[in-house]
Amino acid sequence: MAKTFVEDLEETRIPFLRGILIRSLQDAGLEFDEASHIASEIRDELADNELISTVDLNDMVLERLTSLKNESVVYRYENRNVPLTVEIEQQCGRINPFSRFKFRNSLETIGLKSRESDDVVQMLQEHMTNKSIKTIKSRNLAMLIYRYLRQSSKLGPAVAHRWLVWHDFINSGRELIFLIGGTAGCGKSSIANTLASRLEIVRTQSTDMLREVMRTMIPEQLMPVLHQSSFTAWKGLPGHKKSKNDVSEALLVQGYRSQADLLSLAIEAVVDRATREHVSLVLEGVHVHPVFMEKLQTETDAVVIPVMLGLLKRKHLQQRIKDRSTNVPDRGAKHYLQNFDEIWRLQTYLLSEADRANIHIAVNESRDKVFSEIMRFTIATLAKNFDSSPEKVFGAKAFVDDKV
Length: 404
What we know:
This protein is of the alpha/beta class. The chain is built from 17 helices and eleven strands. It has helices spanning 18-27, 32-45, 54-67, 71-78, 100-109, 114-130, 138-151, 157-172, 188-198, 207-217, 249-276, 290-299, 314-327, 334-338, 340-356, 367-383, 390-394; strands at residues 5-7, 13-15, 51-53, 87-89, 95-97, 135-137, 176-181, 204-206, 281-284, 303-310, 360-363. The longest helix has 28 residues, at 249-276.
């Protein structure tokens, strides 16, 4: 397929990028799935075009947005390049330009939908434009958002409280430790990457990678359990033949637990280093067992957020595994599909153990919905020990600043 280039009025050409269009449509207020669908349609329509002008491309996008009969989305897309020259003064004294994307992302972090977040950001822009604000302190801006959320008929005090709790946590400098468990194919890596990206967490770790490192150091003859998949680890147990077809649940769990136990020290070392260095961490993998989650919650002062992911329908999990061949070719689906019954039974065990340990269970049917659910759970966890006030969180001066 030939690449389509977009040419602006100055005759500068750049390749058409579906991801950039998706981001622009999201900034205009569309949900990710809807933005992705429109961007894909336009990419397909341009497949046979080598060149299109920015004006013609803009008309194509607006035609589709107009058909949605959402005037606010059309308005925001049309005015997406109108600059808002407001500078934000951080508490450390650093000056940053106002970023629509950044504040929209912050609001989605407390559980708002894309359109709700965009409405709040639009209010901020209009307010600062009407007040002719050129510079604003970050705490004043955060307080302004709090007031708007609290007074909103659609959002209200409960949402404003989530913003207050989250902003207090951000100011505290404490670290977050996300523990994302689940069986093969349930989307652990995708959710971990989403959390790390949206929360700007630079340290992530997969237990699969830890296992791979240990495999290079310890030969299979010495530790056969380590050299199997989590759902076939029983084959490495002493006294069991690898060719056994009908593995019992007890044997399946024993193999998994043996492998998870071997990795537990390495996992603990990763978490210990993160807490010593006071950095947040997203740790994901099938070896993040509920027993480990329970133990860590009681042994560290960090804010630990344990989540067990799952898919409740066999066909959904099976399809996710099949999709691996397309999305991640090197992680072929054949091995997983051949052992799908064991994967499904292992998931049943993990979900049951998570339920027994009161670990939060998230059904991963949509990445955006799961992110929102995890963040609401995170803020609810933080709220248990929250005893501050808006004046303390934002600073009393923020409430009397005439500029706001």
